[in-house]
Specification:
single chain; mainly alpha; 62% helix
Length: 79
Amino acid sequence: MPNISLKNISDSLYRRLKDSAVQHHRSLNKEMIARLEAQLGSPHLDVEQKLAEIRILRQRVPLYANPEEIDAFRQEGRP
């Protein structure tokens, strides 16, 4: 696996990363990897897991709304 060195990290950023690592019971290295994966997206999530998440979201949001529902939404102040 490749290695990365970070240079010129401010003391404040280092402390925040270190505190976060302690809070999550991880090493500083693992905390930084977790943060990067969270920001950039993890390639380790398989397709089935992503589809399951999409299905859950689709259940929350109606795929269509009839005119009465649209009027009700507008009366509630929803665009």
